[in-house]
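pasting for the record
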Amino acid sequence: MGFRNLIVTQESRLSSQQGYLVVTMPEGIHKVHLSELDAIVLENPRVKVSGVLLNQLGQHNISLILCDEKHHPSTMMLPLHGNFHRVKNINRQVSWNQDLKDQVWQKIIKHKLHMQIQVLKSFSQDNTHLLEYIQHIELGDATNREGLAAKVYFRKLFGPTFVRGAENPENWALNYGYAILASYFSRTIAAKGYLTELGIKHKNEFNAYNLAYDLMEPFRPLVDQRVKLIVKDVFTQKERHQLLDLVNEKVKINGTVQFLPNAVDLYCQSILNELNGKEKNAMTLHWSKERKG
């Protein structure tokens, strides 16, 4: 698994040569070994990518993310294969029991609210309401504690007038960061031989990444906390680069400190095992250390 994210902002050509990504630009040629790469983000629509490189990105499980004219991630390339048990896993996925999915979703939302509480604590914000909500999360989150908590959480974090979905730098940054996060989860799910389209809660027929959006919920606060720290009235290339550095974020999962890609892999595997009836454990998820705003 790689440890670098590459963002391409200039008109250029991307190809491969002897295991290296070759970036050819007017001012020169740059090379990066494919084993070092975790994801590539193409921000410039004039970037050309060779077919050979596309195949090699799939073989190395490197995410390729394309951005629209507003620099928002809009398209993601994932390998179709990568697991010898793909057909068996998909058959299991289709037959996941609804009661079990409701139990798992309840756990996921509890993890998410615990992480949101930690974010608010890092900025010395009151988290009393979230503590109350977490005690009343039902199977499948039938009473939508997640949605109620989100309204309180975002206003505590970004101010009383903040509205999720409004056109402002904070929301642009959140959307950008969430898309990067979704790429990690989508790639991991595909590598494990499951369909990203078939979610346990998200069921949008136009969303190709429903399961990724399900499993990434507890990790969204990683993006929220970073956006709070780096976005000050603007969202430029500098802030986008800082969000791409999520790969170096550390998470304490089940008592061990892991970089984000490893934490994603461990979390996905645990949830998938539980959905398949293989395990049911009291997974813990925390910041690797306290952060100060």
